[in-house]
Amino acid sequence: MTDPINYYAFKKEEWKSFYQLQSIPLTKESLRQIKAFNDEISLQDVRDVYIPMVHLLDLCNQNFDAWQKTKTEFLSKKPRKVPFIIGISGSVAVGKSTTARLLEVLLTHYFPDKKIQLITTDGFLYNSAELNRRHIMDRKGFPESYDMKSLIHFLNEVKSGKRNVKAPIYSHDAYDIIPDKFDIVDQPDVLIIEGINTLQLPSNQQIYVSDFTDFSIYIDAEDDLIEQWYIERFKSLMDTAFQNPSNYYYKIAHTDRQKAIENARNVWQEINLPNLKENIKPTKTRADLIVHKTHNHRIDKILLRKY
Ligand SMILES: Nc1ncnc2c1ncn2[C@@H]1O[C@H](COP(=O)(O)OP(=O)(O)O)[C@@H](O)[C@H]1O
Ligand SMILES: CC(C)(COP(=O)(O)O)[C@@H](O)C(=O)NCCC(=O)O
């Protein structure tokens, strides 16, 4: 596929030449934190791609702060700190949550005075009872499976500077929303919001998630590779999380391993792949930055929106 005309496209080698943070190397502790949540992660990609990205995000944040200040001066209002929101989008299993957590660690490392928080949009999925009531249990992840009104309300409260804003929590263990449990977002300097729908324009909404994000990143890869990562993640979960008797997949993972994998492949083919094609991929060219990954999650190309 040719690159969209409104993006600069860079091979990794070129991208990394734009910024090297040699002066503030990652500490052993930060490297340990990165490896702790994903020991497969390429530290070379962290240095070559993510550190320049973090620098770009900081420049964008400074610009955003200056613009907020100018705006309040024009309006003769008292200046206040407005959270800078980074949206991360892409297919199920493309690596959104890994990227989001990596950015959280790196931003915390390089900007220790800033409060960085992270939430995922899956907390705004309707709970299973409601999905069943609407007969859309097999449409989890599709636009209609999210309570977009609540998500927009949440983002509006965060942007308005409200304290202790609650975000509901989705449990992959229970395959459902956890009742009465919340993440608390409390006046962060930077909020990272990760989810397949952060660039979507649902038809029944006039305000979108993207109206609240100040920088958006789309994680991209070929469909076949993402399917492979989905199945690999499923297999490693079978040896870990699915061993817990309270896990949603406990029974199926304990009857017949091959059947369980077959089942996961069907879920990919019938739910996540169609969602990727119909609803996620078409939002790619709204992102400020597209990160393209190839085998073993290595990044081979970065596209930065020109205008
Ligand atoms: N940069 C990376 N390096 C190595 N493995 C990765 C990387 N990003 C994601 N993965 C692996 O790919 C799978 C999907 O990643 P995940 O972050 O859970 O995706 P998503 O949040 O998009 O569903 C997981 O098994 C994860 O460990
Ligand atoms: C809850 C999700 C929609 C969220 O995806 P994520 O943000 O974790 O990529 C997804 O993990 C999911 O459950 N999809 C439905 C089909 C499946 O079980 O994979």
Give helix % range: 40-55%
Portion in beta strands:
15-25%
Radius of gyration: 20 Å
Q: Tell me the CATH topology.
A: Rossmann fold
The count of DSSP E runs of length 2 or more, i.e. the number of strands, is 9
The description of the largest β-sheet is:
7 strands, mixed
Order of helices and strands: EHHHEHEHHEEEEHHHEE
Average of pLDDT: 94
Order of the strands making up the biggest sheet: 1-9-8-7-2-6-3
Q: Determine the oligomeric state from the structure.
A: single chain
Structural class: alpha/beta
Query: Tell me, what's the shape?
Result: globular
Task: Give the gist of this structure.
The protein is α/β, with parallel strands linked by helices. The protein has helices at 12-17, 28-37, 43-74, 96-110, 128-133, 148-159, 223-238, 250-255, 257-280; strands spanning 7-11, 84-90, 116-120, 165-171, 176-185, 190-194, 215-220, 289-293, 299-305.
